[in-house]
Amino acid sequence: MIKTENYFAETYGLTPTHSEVLAALPHLNPGKALDLGCGNGRNSLFLSQNGFDVTAWDHNPASLARLEQIAAQESITNIHIEQRDLNQTRFNGGYTFVLSTVVMMFLQPETIPQLIADMQASTVRDGHNLIVAAMSTDDYPCPLAFPFTFKSGELSHYYRNWHILKYNEHVGQLHKRDEQGNRISCRFATLLAQKASL
Length: 198
Description:
The chain is of the alpha/beta class. The protein has helices at about 5-10, 20-25, 40-50, 60-75, 110-120, 155-160, and strands spanning about 30-35, 55-60, 80-85, 95-100, 125-135, 165-170, 170-175, 185-195. The longest helix is centred in the middle third of the chain and has 13 residues, at about 60-75.
């Protein structure tokens, strides 16, 4: 039985599936997915329920333990969970969908070019990449001191040879709150791109 998009959030108190993952789903062909920085698994669990065989990586053992617990409780067998430090990880594979939502700003700047290159190389022809990550721009400096933030146009440039289905640099909100209890805003680079047929 396919669970509703909010099932895991409501049942296990997870953050809801990322809105860009929900928006991307109609464009995707189910197959192998790689979730880079999966956290508690909000996106991995959703994808697993929508026909994907999901590889879920994160650096945080507590988050992965939570995801393993949920997967066991739900008898989910199509999520493969591994502890990985994305700053130290090179990878390849044949994925139809590689995603990284709100993760890259926590990585070291020198990691990003190779990480994106590996994401692209690991994607099968006509497969998709989804990236959502914080930016810091002259007109909207990021209020948090993340190790890495994208500059305007930087993320889309990496995908100049792909078919970009969606790209924007809109202001959005982090889950983190300021001293007044308001969610902190910053600009995000959001990209959904399809690997072009050669």
